[in-house]
Specification:
Layout (H helix, E strand, L loop, with lengths): L3 H4 L7 E2 L4 H11 L3 E5 L5 E6 H9 L10 H5 L7 E2 L4 H11 L3 E6 L2 E7 H7 L2 H12 L4
Parallel strand pairs: 1-2, 4-5
Antiparallel strand pairs: 2-3, 5-6
Helix pairs in contact: 5-7
């Protein structure tokens, strides 16, 4: 059985909950990523920050990204995760059920990786990948 740990990106970019949105956006742009897990000072997952969040919850809302903390954007957001030892099929089901394109991978209470739609596409049969794309493409991220 292939597990989430086997296909995950083991070096995800972590955004500190104390950073400003401008700092986080700069990091995301430099790393070429559209989403990153938000963790507190103890390394515990507090949320996810996406480029879409930055646009809709900060820029479009008229907030100053240099003054807005990532914590404000993360508030009230339920984070969908997958356990490091869960199967790839479970990751697929979780993405489909929750209509998400990326999953933080946790081991205990720590983020140890990220799985993207693309990671699954490389490790699953085409028909399963097609079902995933269809399930999540109808809903905005």
């Amino acid at each position: 059985m292939t597990s989430a740990r086997d296909i995950m990106n083991a070096n995800p970019e972590i955004i500190s909950i104390d950073q400003t949105v401008a700092q986080a956006a700069k990091t995301m742009a430099e790393k070429g990523i559209g989403a990153a897990p938000i963790c507190n000072s103890e390394g515990r997952l507090q949320g996810m920050l996406t480029d879409r969040d930055i646009v809709t919850k900060v820029i479009a809302a008229g907030k100053d990204p240099a003054q807005t903390k990532v914590a404000e954007v993360a508030q009230g957001t339920e984070v969908v995760t997958i356990g490091a030892d869960d199967s790839v099929d479970e990751a697929l089901r979780t993405m489909k059920d929750h209509k998400v394109r990326r999953l933080p991978v946790i081991d205990g209470d720590r983020v140890v990786g990220m799985i993207s739609q693309g990671d699954l596409a490389q490790h699953l049969p085409d028909d399963k990948v097609g079902d995933l794309v269809e399930a999540i493409s109808a809903t905005p991220e």
